[in-house]
Amino acid sequence: MTVPLPPWRSAPRRRAAKPALSQELVVKTALEILAKEGLDAVTMRRVAQELETGPASLYAHVANKDELAELMLDAVLAEAPIPEPDPAHWDEQVKDLVRGQIRVMVAHPGIARVAWDIAVPVTPSSLRQGEAMLALLRAGGLTLKQATFAGDALALYAKAYAYEASGWTWGDIDEAETAKRGEQMVAYMRSLPADAFPNMLRIGEFFSAETATERLEFALDVYLAGLKVVAAKNR
């Protein structure tokens, strides 16, 4: 017969069973560490610690830290929506695709740096994003070669923009130091002969956090306008 515990005693708590280790769980945990502690904190040892296991057990699912970083980038890119190509609106769809890629990379500290470090990411999400870009550009009338070159340029711009924006968003860029350098640059530029650099001396007002989105949209508008000209010549 089981004797019940007296009312002043607490029943022992059973520890919840740990979920089975998998590549998906390793990547999910790494992204959680990334969000809380930043990219430099994401190591195989730190992920293993969070999963209450040894680093060696992770290698059955992830080869090394570099592969983990690429898998994290892949998981982030999976968050970017992919449109169904519409030839009537292909140019706006291309812009939306680039905006979506930038948005998800900036939302995760350090991921834009990962994207920049990986020359040619070949993972399911990166392949889907690449295929989507090519499909949209081809729907607009570009040849495969033209679409390839255009898609490559857009991908580079998206990564570069996201890298810079991430620096401001997550504090990688020291605002005080940047402000000090900015004041020094203004003073230096004003000391130069006005007739030697008449345009360069006037452009400072166009580079600020307030103009960041405007600069992005301008670049996309101009680039897509050029692609429309190229596509029209193919007809």
Descriptive report:
This protein is mainly α and 235 residues long. 62% of the residues lie in helices and 0% in strands. It contains ten helices and no strands. The chain is extended. The model has no long low-confidence stretch (mean pLDDT 89).
Draw up the topology in text:
Layout: H1 23-37, H2 44-50, H3 55-58, H4 65-77, H5 90-106, H6 111-117, H7 124-139, H8 144-169, H9 175-191, H10 212-234
Helix pairs in contact: 1-2, 1-4, 4-6, 4-7, 5-7, 5-8, 6-8, 7-8
Q: Give the topology string: H per helix, E per strand.
A: HHHHHHHHHH
Structural class: mainly alpha
Report the portion of residues in β strands.
under 5%
Helix percent reads: 55-70%
Largest sheet: none
Mean pLDDT: 89
- Could you tell me how far the N terminus lies from the C terminus, measured between alpha carbons in angstroms? 88 Å
Poorly predicted sequence stretches spanning 5 or more consecutive residues: none
The tally of helices reads 10
How would you name the oligomeric state of the polypeptide chains in this document?
single chain
Principal-axis shape equals extended
- The count of strands amounts to 0
Based on CA atoms alone, the radius of gyration comes out at 25 Å
